[in-house]
Design brief:
Blueprint: E1 2-7, E2 17-22, H1 31-40, H2 42-53, E3 65-69, E4 77-82, H3 93-110, E5 114-117, H4 129-146, E6 154-159, H5 162-169
Parallel strand pairs: 1-6, 2-4, 2-5, 5-6
Antiparallel strand pairs: 3-4
Helix pairs in contact: 3-4, 4-5
């Protein structure tokens, strides 16, 4: 799998799946979550409500991931993952790494060959960008090493600015 980092808008990426930095309710929020819900339209919220009424009545746990359709996005799926909130004392790097590996597991299960990740838990959840970059790239690279038969061909980190992209780029493996 090729791993890359770009500056851009995650809602417009030409990939099979977009990873949403969701909150546990799955019902939308601010930041990346809000942008994805706005761009995807009402079908995404309807699918998330259905998940809450059926499979996830207590919401999605930190570090876990689940897929829905993508509504009006160019992607086919949205893979929702809940990052740890450093402001709430959730500072275990393994929880953050699980967001990326769980999202890759789900992408592989649904048959996605490409996916776009945001910097899960950076921003309002209080994790420093540099730490998110190191953990995200390491977890993603480790997942690739452990899943050589996966159909996932591209993992793209879509970041808000050049500084964030530079943080991720310095951790990318040579390809």
């Amino acid at each position: 799998m090729r791993i890359e980092a770009v500056v851009g808008d995650i809602t417009t990426q030409p990939v099979d799946a977009v990873v949403n930095a969701a909150n546990s309710s799955l019902l939308g929020g601010g930041g990346v979550d809000g942008a994805i819900h706005r761009a995807a339209g009402p079908d995404l919220l309807a699918e998330c409500r259905h998940l809450r009424e059926t499979a996830l009545p207590d919401g999605l746990a930190v570090g876990h991931a689940v897929a829905t359709g993508a509504g009006n996005l160019p992607a086919r799926w949205v893979i929702h993952t809940v990052g740890p909130n450093a402001h709430a004392g959730q500072t275990d790097p393994a929880l953050l790494a699980a967001c990326f590996t769980s999202s890759l597991d789900v992408a592989d299960q649904v048959g996605a060959t490409s996916l776009a990740f945001p910097a899960v838990s950076a921003g309002v959840y209080g994790w420093p960008m540099e730490q998110v970059a190191q953990i995200a790239v390491s977890a993603t690279h480790g997942w690739v090493q452990n899943h050589p038969a996966s159909a996932v061909e591209l993992g793209r980190f879509v970041l808000v600015n050049e500084d964030a992209r530079a943080s991720f780029t310095q951790h990318l493996p040579a390809q």
